[in-house]
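FAQ: What does a multi-protein file look like?

Like this. Sequence, then tokens, then the next protein.
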Amino acid sequence: MIKGRIKVEDIDGQLFEVKVVEPDNPKPASFTHYLHNHKNGVSQFYKKDALAFVKEILAKEYPTNEITNKIAEETLQHLIYDLHKTIPFPAPENPKFKFIDLFAGIGGFRMAFQNLEGKCVFTSEWDKYSKQTYKANFGEIPFGDITKSETKSYIPDNFDVLCAGFPCQAFSIAGRRGGFEDTRGTLFFDVAEIIKKKQPKAIFLENVKGLRNHDKGKTLATILNVLREDLNYYVPEPQILNAKEFGVPQNRERIFIVGFRKDLGITDFQYPEPTNKDVALEDILEKEEVSVKYYLSTTYVQTLKNHRARHESKGNGFGYEIIPNDGTANAVVCGGMGRERNLVLDDRLTNFKPITNISGEVNREGIRKMTPREWARLQGFPDDFKIIVSDAQAYKQFGNSVAVPAIQATAQEIIKKLNL
């Protein structure tokens, strides 16, 4: 499966394209990680595979030539020189600290920490479409499945902050103390294992609000016990932050867990105060007419109305919702009623001819879904963030992402405490 293309310049100035294949093949990831880390001493972790990858590509492109290590080295140097000219969000030239990005998605954590002059030295993400978006914006291919020992082996030493928006899973802790071994088999175990081995100065974990009460509170209790007792980190009480309090009009509550290695002597931490910036939905809506494909059909509108009426008759609050321009969007999520809970009224449509297969006609009430770009703005991504996947994948990616402004505000407090 083609994972994308990287322009590569060889020593004669000839351009050719590299097809990045095999989602769990670490060589393409090592190649891009090497390019990004040639100045900071981290490149040693990636150089062997990076050179091997370049030699493979050159051998295919120039089958009659002998491809030596010297040629591969010189090719890499050409690529490094051109790297910052070709990606939308390059790392800072003179970074103040290093971090790693686990369960990276499309790079919400990376965006926030790079804005604070941090350098990402390792990233992992298993979803193939998210990898494409990540590469298009940061010029780096994430490594794959972080549960695999081979993937973990590429994580460098001596980084400052570990970031992870890991999925929530219950632990089997009945009759036990809820310690490190009790998390085995879950994705948190892999995060804890990395923390134990690499000992970063700080950790920043993000999860859904429901983690607080997940499995009657046992899941969060185990996580905190492992971090505090087994891994010896100072972890203040986790806090739920809402994206709408940090400059985006989205009601999105997420639990943040911050920790510091105890030998640093940090014994207090304050989560960021809300910015109280006055924002509304109209601040993120498209300024020009939106394609007819985002407008609901008359049949679908009626289906949504019937669905809500059935729930209302039972005393439930489920169903579609149209957000007023001066209002705040519901949390953007993938699946379920994610898009239907964030409909808008937009009467600017001039061409009602459908461009997709729909049942019925395009509705004349002006009811439409938000566009993927509007979802990106709700999550705090800038407009030059590239959306290169289908709408369906884009909605999924932004729904699964973090709200960048809330992450960045918390990251700023972490960096202050570390004096980086």
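And here is the next protein:
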Amino acid sequence: MRTLQTNIIKLSLVPLVGFLIVCISLGYWQVIRAPALRAHPYNDQAQQRAKSIQPGQVYTSDDQLILGVRQTPEGWVRAYPAGEVYAHRTGYDYKTGLSQGLHQALLGVGRYENFWRNFRNGRPTGLNVILTLDSSAQATAARLLRGKRGAVVALQPQTGAVLALASAPSYDPQRVLDNDIVYEMFRSDPASPELNRALQGLYPPGSVFKIFTAAAALDAGVANPQTVFTCAGAETIAHTLVKCRNASGHGRVSLTWALADSCNVTFAKLAEQLGPQRFRSYAKKFHLLDSAKLCLPGKSGKMADVLAYKGERELVQAGFGQGATLLTPVAVAQLAATIANGGQVIRPYLVDSIEEFNGRVVYRGRGQHLGQAISQQTADQVEGMMVVAVEKGTGGGAAIRGTVVAAKTGSAENPHGPPHAWIVVLAPAHQAQAVVVVVVENGGSGGEVAAPIAREVLKALLR
């Protein structure tokens, strides 16, 4: 009898457990996951509901409106008052740019949904987004890139705040939206105006990568700024023919002057002495290949496996920024910001704050600290070598009267045409308020083509 009672109890537990599982499942999907499901872009009801929501707007740090909103008989639609200057930030519809990356915040849905806010406002409303961008620096970068292909990135090194983020060629979002012919031409344009080169462009970094090689070698104790190398103009290093930009060679040259006058042979030898293990270790410490994660589509960098069979050849080429090494401009800017920030790596951020219409802040952005890549002493040494590059070497085009500027130029070879022109600039040196990186596709000389752009953007930031 007792066995029968036990079996009846066990049997009765089956529907009870099933009922509890159903309740928990319904509670999870209808309560916990409900905001995310309602906000999901593939939810048709969410798309219809979004038309009734007054979206939030996007501003620069100095209150310039770059992504607005206007009401039509069909509902709320986006406006693009800043045009092509911010096109790669705003995008041209809800599936592109920050309209996609900040979809939940701008519509006040998902994690930003607030019933009482909508009740107080009398209608569903989104949140406003304040970016870290400086409108003067951004406008200067966009103007100087016009007619070129390339990108400008400016960072505040101590915080990681993105001060400028420009890509060229650009486009007018409103024209793309309003005209089907313009849209088709835009999508099929071989110049790829939709590509955000600052975050998605992968380029051989060329000689600006010597900043990394110098920093790694100094920090590892392989060399110091006064270490002397010899350059014959063209030498075979690790079974790889390395040609210096100075065809006749630099002769005996210190590491400082090798950086200032961009000696390929010296940095090939330096990478060989550093070795593949330490080279790869420092690449990880600097987070060189990381994607930027700025609420916008981005790409990760690429680098050959220097530990693989015959990896010594790739190591030698990587030492001066060639071979299989490909980086985005924002990754190069983060590298430079690490030098300016005493060796501390900070992941950049673009969103300063997210606010309700009454100004109440619901989110505050900040750069993520990723660790110490090199010592403060090493960072100071590299920055001092970059000052020499401006005062006596290839970076003279970045000089600003009354300000001590540190810089490194680059002309990166590529298989598709003339070299890409690069420059990295920090100012004021040893107390940098801003880091500026410029790349101009097929521009040739970084000192002649990229330096004037960086100088003007830097001047806009230092005013």
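Q: Is there any per-entry metadata?
A: Some entries carry free-text notes. For the entry above: The first helix runs from residue 2 to 32.
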